[in-house]
Amino acid sequence: MRPYHSEEKYRITKRTVAIMPCYETTWESRVILEDGSEIKTPLRPYQLLQLSCRQYSSSIEERIFVAKRVAGIKGKVPVVIEPTSGLVFFPTMSPKRPECEWYAWSHVRDITSDPIESKGLVVTQNGHRIATNATSYVLRNQLKATGELVARFQQLNQSATLNS
To answer: From CA 109, how far away is CA 89, in angstroms rounded?
Structure first.
């Protein structure tokens, strides 16, 4: 596990699979990368998303507002950090809750259930299994809503290209 160093600015990238709360005294988040490695940071998950949206010249509030307007999503709104590169993350619960986990839509291959804990498991494109704090039902709904949002953004981009 590679710790975050204060001189680094962690930027969410295509390699980012999940952003999860970390309950250690000096760390607030665990960032899981596509190879299964982890980075710990002193920023909370929501703060990491805010920072990454700002790095792409937007704010998380703008991204949530647009997602609500484009796809009609009411609660647990996915965040499209950067639409052209497919950086889209969905939350497991209200984003304002400190225990909210975020998953990259493009890295999710499947959602399964943990038979012992009755919680959902995210299976990544690389086959890694990540235990979550949400049920498989919630995760599937979030995955579906995020897919619909991505499809809607693609439609809007295509119609903008055709009309120009």
So the answer is: 14
Q: Are 18 and 130 in contact (CB under 8 A)?
A: yes
Of 126, 125, 119, 127, the residue nearest 101 (C-alpha): 119
Q: pLDDT tens digits, residue range 48-98?
A: 999 999 988 899 999 999 999 888 888 899 999 987 888 999 999 999 899
CA separation (Å) from 126 to 17, 40, 49, 115? 10, 21, 23, 22
Asked whether the predicted pLDDT for residue 7 surpasses 80, the reply is: no
Burial bucket for residue 84 (CB in 10 Å: 0-12, 13-18, 19+):
exposed
State how beta strands 38-41 and 2-3 pair: parallel
Residue from 93, 101, 90 nearest 132 by CA = 101
Residues contacting 32, CB < 8 A, separation 6+: 16, 17, 18, 19, 20, 38, 128, 130
Torsion sign (Cα): 49, 149, 18, 11: negative
Distance CA 162, CA 92 (A): 36
